[in-house]
């Protein structure tokens, strides 16, 4: 049986232990004999690498653990490259959120001005990483978890079209798990349908194995105020619980479909700003919560030179990326939510946009074999959002202030050109050394 070399770019991330555990649990379906962590943060990378080495040794996992800051060394002979970069780290995410809120705008990681800033820092690095994978491991599949996904996917579509890249997101599967639990099912017992862009879409159907349509029942539960049943899949802190509660607000506003969680920022931007703490944002929660807990545990393992007592939490993030690699490795044609170039799938939208819907994954990557006509209201929202995404890529690649301003003006969370200019100038100031020069 073939054995695989997997590289995790952004290997010093707090998400790495969850991905590693998912790789280990899936050994019978995709045996990995070499796992390499690559990152630019050598200090955190060394600690995560030593943790990984101890984990493999103590659990007698039959793979070599390596870590390096060199992309050439990491990528050579790789079969899969998982990318989860965060240019500027959580510290710059904090700036994105707080600068946006200081201007009365949504302060969020991938939506609104914060998502714009994250993209402007990440577009050129993700292009460079992808080019290096193509150079050093031309047959490797890149499975990209980096955000803002649709903007980075658009950049790769333009700049590295010969790469074998998948851009995936765990948020839809997390929401599917919650919706299934609310209906009294396991997620894999149901078939979901969805259309949209990444972080910008709607569930249009939920059917059980008998073919019964359950979407009306779920909408009724939400409209009656019963709330969504949540399970422990790694998203159960207070802010996520509020996020899932807001899905019902979206259903009340437009009851055709069930919106993805992120639509709260586009449907209710003023309310989201009002509820936000401008002095303690989601980035602060993650730094004081998940990041601290994971690195404290990894440090304890390294200092004790033993994995004994380490608790691995459930993590849909890790399982989802590994499941897609398994689908490629074993040519399973398994059904997933995928992000692909439209090419007629959404029949009344441009062919060259990156869309999100259900398709299958095999050794040839993602494929969608259906045609959907998007209703006018939802199509109009998507066209506007996609224009913002494309202009953001233009701004980064061309160093264009004009296109950056146009992008933010189009963003549905920004109410005016004046606000767009205010926040753009403020973000440029705090992102010196990260943004391309905008003229």
From TrEMBL:
Enzyme Commission identifier(s): 3.2.1.122
UniProt cofactor note: Binds 1 NAD(+) per subunit.
Top-level division of the source organism's lineage: Bacteria
Listed Pfam families: Glyco_hydro_4, Glyco_hydro_4C
Keyword Metal-binding: yes
Alphabetical list of Gene3D superfamilies matching this protein: Lactate dehydrogenase/glycoside hydrolase, family 4, C-terminal, NAD(P)-binding Rossmann-like Domain
Ranges where the Glycosyl hydrolase family 4 C-terminal domain occurs: 194-414
InterPro entries: Glyco_hydro_4, Glyco_hydro_4_C, Lactate_DH/Glyco_Ohase_4_C, NAD(P)-bd_dom_sf
Molecular function GO terms recorded: maltose-6'-phosphate glucosidase activity
Keyword terms of this UniProt record: Glycosidase, Hydrolase, Manganese, Metal-binding, NAD
Cofactor(s) demanded: NAD(+)
Subunit text: Homotetramer.
Similarity annotation: Belongs to the glycosyl hydrolase 4 family.
Protein name: Maltose-6'-phosphate glucosidase
Organism listed in the record: Paraclostridium ghonii
Lineage, top ranks: Bacteria, Bacillati, Bacillota, Clostridia, Peptostreptococcales
